[in-house]
Amino acid sequence: MSYVIGIDCGTSGTKAVLFDESGETIASHTETYYMYQPQNGYAEQDPSDWADAMIDAVRAVVSLTHVKKEDVKAIGISGQMHGLVLLDKDNNVLRRSIIWCDQRTSEEAAWMTEHIGRDRLVDITANPALTGWTAAKILWVKNHEPEIYSKTAHILLPKDYLRFLLTDEYASDVSDASGMQLLDVKNRCWSDELLSEFEIDKSWLGKLYESCEAAGTLTSKMAEKLLLCEGIPVVAGAGDNAAAAVGTGVISDGKAFTTIGTSGVVFAHTSKISIDKAGRVHTCCAAVPGAWHVMGVTQGAGLSLKWFRDNFCRSEKETASLMGIDEYQLMDREAEKVPAGSDRLIYLPYLMGERTPHLDPDARGVFFGLSAIHTKRDMLRAVMEGVSYSLRDCVEVFREMGISVSDMTACGGGGSSPLWRSMLADLYNCEVKTTASKEGPALGAAILACVGAGIYKDVQEACGQMIHTDKVQQPVSRNVQIYEGYYQLYRKLYPALKDNFAQLAKLS
Question: In the chain, count of helices (H) and strands (E)?
Answer without folding.
Answer: 19, 24
